[in-house]
Design brief:
mainly alpha; 8 helices; 67% helix; 0% strand; globular
């Protein structure tokens, strides 16, 4: 806790949105990013759910790690603790969506419970430990990373929906054009790298 880097939490927030974007720069969480990005409404719903999970799990994991795991010398259990918190949070959000947003719950299907194994969410918790972030740095890092993931999947889905109405050569249809669009988006985000840098 005392070794937190002297980085303004707002800089961490902006960096996690652009220059350290979880999906377009660190390439974490690519499976659901590619799979659920064919329809804007569904992709945006998943992006919101992932962002919500990122904020809550990162905050809870920081508190548990610094108030329980470290004082009792149980650092070797951090992976297990982080995954249990992520799974519990996803389960609560899934139950809430089933109750209050049943249409979106049906559209997301299997991808909603699979948020539990989205490596971007576990990656954020591990980054906050590796980088020795303070509480507020962690909260804004989780918030920015969640918004960045949501922004990226929503942008990809919007582009794919627009392109679905156009005729593409057979070799570019399906996954091929999706990977090309993702690569171009990643290049655009990396273009911000001189503005905010967080290590």
């Amino acid at each position: 806790m005392g070794n937190a880097p002297q980085i303004n939490p707002l800089v961490i927030f902006l960096a996690s949105l652009f220059t350290s974007n979880m999906v377009l720069v660190n390439f974490l969480g690519m499976c659901s990013f590619i799979s659920v990005s064919s329809e804007y409404d569904t992709a945006s719903g998943l992006g919101k759910a992932v962002a919500l999970v990122m904020v809550f799990t990162t905050t809870i994991n920081w508190l548990i790690y610094h108030l329980l795991v470290v004082p009792f010398g149980l650092e070797y259990l951090r992976y297990l603790v982080f995954i249990v918190v992520i799974a519990a949070t996803v389960q609560i959000i899934e139950m809430a969506m089933d109750r209050y947003l049943p249409d979106l719950h049906v559209r997301l299907g299997i991808f909603l419970p699979l948020i539990t194994v989205n490596c971007a969410i576990l990656g954020i918790s591990l980054f906050m430990v590796i980088r020795s972030y303070s509480f507020w740095q962690t909260v804004l890092f989780g918030f920015g990373s969640g918004l960045g993931w949501w922004m990226a999947i929503a942008a990809l889905a919007a582009i794919r929906e627009k392109m679905a109405a156009n005729r593409l050569p057979p070799g570019l249809q399906g996954p091929a054009i999706t990977f090309i669009i993702t690569g171009l988006m990643a290049l655009a985000f990396v273009g911000f790298s001189g503005i905010f840098a967080v290590m």
